[in-house]
Amino acid sequence: MTHCDYDVFLSYNRAQKDWTRNLARRLRDAGFRVWFDEWCLRGGENWIVGLRRGVNESRHVVCVTSPEFFANQWPRFETYIAILDDPAAGERKLIPVFHTPCELPPELAFRQGIDFSNTHTEPTRYEFRLAQLMADLDPSRERPTDFETFRARWRPEEPEVIPVVGPLPRGSLMPMRPNPHFVGREDELRELERMLRAGSTTAIGQVAAATGLGGIGKTQLAVEYAHRYGRRYPGGVFWLDVSDPEAIPSQAARCGGVEGMNLPGSANLSLPDQVAQVRAEWASRTIRLLIFDNVEQPGVVEAWRPATGGCRVLITSRCADWPATMGVETVPLATLPRDKAVELLCKGRAEALEDAAERQAADEICDVLGDLPLAVALAGSYLAAYRHDVTLADYLAELEAQPVLSHPTLVNFVDDPLPTRHIQNVAATFELSYRRLDPQDETDLLAMHLFHLAGHFAPASISRELLLKAAHHPPSPLLVLGEGKGGRGDGVRAYADALRRLTRLGLVEEEAEGRLLLHRLLAAFARQHPAPGQTQEEGWEAVANTVREFAYEQNQSGLPAALAREVAHLRHLANVAEQRGWSEAGGLYNELGYHLKMLAAYAEARAAYERALAIWEETLGPEHPNVASAVNNLGVVLKDLGDLAGARAAVERALAIDEAVFGAEHPNVATDVNNLGLVLQALGDLAGARAAYERALAIDEAVFGADHPNVARDVNNLGGVLQALGDLAGARAACERALAIFRRFYGEDHPRTQIVLGNLRALEEG
Fold it and tell me: Which domain, by its residues, includes 293?
């Protein structure tokens, strides 16, 4: 076999991406050179060219097989390349790894694979299969064959003990002291150490980045890493604040002066020569750690990191999106785990944790602050200063009584500077990123618009599509932005560029599948910052109306899955709308109830419908059609809950309102009458139910024609009561008619089609 740059190429479907990423890390940590697309695809590279290059440059191709794998063209494309390179399997180029049981195509059926399908809940069995895979990739390793023997010998690795804070090597330039209250980042410290590999002579993953939004603790993590692991870098640890590129040369020169390495003759050199002397030293084989804090542009790292030598580089940045060609491995920082956040909050009054009520208040404070380290640390300093005067419950009430970002404790209350010397103002920390958006730049202006809109969603994962729909929702002064001069393609790219700008500034986090996330405090900041030409009220209405319209569309489709992912936003906006006294709160609650009913969450649906009813009765009056809608929906849920008397009263009230407003032949009346039929049938009044269904059918046929889903609904329900009355032929004819309509409108797999199909089968079997 010819020379290969990689030992193994990992081919997979995105459904197994997390699992495969873990496999890639395990193989890399074991010394294998791994081609994994997240690490190896070059920025802007053609995917097909990149994938072919990866397969050709790899000694082996491991396919993580699953039903999804064979349903997708890209993994199969990679597999076929490997088969063409080694059609007879003589060089064992292709190694199948079975993630999920599935039928193999003929071209893979004769190749021996490694079965991981039964390892997902058994760590020892996973290690057994992993050892087999490693032996197949490297024949010099012993290949285990008997699981019981392997299990008897295998011992799980203990997590590395994190060193205590210790002195740095001579010559280090580290201006920041360790934080005695540092908590909750043990895993991140270990991950940085793994990436930087301080003990090896050749760097593996030479640049590591701690990333996240302002106040998340990136700089604090870097400081802690330096003071705990710094002694493993014999050439010293050197800290540079690179937020101002013009100040970097003078900082670099200091690293070579008496405060740092004390290089010979440094004091007599000009600044450019001092910098050149330091950079030459950094390029030597001596192992050093360079920390670039507050990186805003990838170009700064490219300009200042040594191209050769033993230096490792640790950067802190709000940007998590780095060009693949730079080889940056990222440690995205999440908020603190709740127990660690509570520990940090109570650092000056640990006795509070012994009181159940105070501990509960501490938990709720951390929830309000979103477990953001900076906010929790500032709140903890306030609580420590007033430990004899303010209870945690008192402080919680203060936070909830005003906009949280304006509370004095989060706005320069603390006199003692933080170890990182950062500004002690949460909103001002966010402002540092936000100010980098230039409203004169079209992309930045669109980014400001999207950021403000995103702040109105719930503090949960946000659909990219919903956010973009809200950006187009009138009345928006920025509708022209993002449209592009070249049609839809340009418009899509404009929005993508704006969102990328936000993620690079740490204002928005991009999750899997392109979904977006804002920290709850950052969302509060975003709500206070409408884009130029936009008001807070317009932004709020755009988001609320977009979510309500989306909920209505999904509810009418009869398919709950899409809305289930967004229901947190629907619930949040309904609550906020109610607090704001907005009449459309009724519409939001009504759609929430409809969705919950589809999920058979009847008690929750009833509560949502009752909120909608109360709001609409107060804002629109008791005889409004919206009130009829809420009452009608409430009646159906009451029937499902077994309150048939309440259900009948509700549906009859809805019917009376709609008949008075629309007349006797309106589709709303047909819906009310149909639901009355359901209640009457449940009460045992089959004749009354039949008459109701027949009336509903007559109205809907007159309004919509013979082939409408509402007609199918009426016919199906009529078939049910005919069956109960013993008219099996009439029931069968009704079901067949309803089935034909639903098939035509929704297809075979839609729930409404399947329900009618089930009714028909029951008739035939009976």
Answer: 186-332
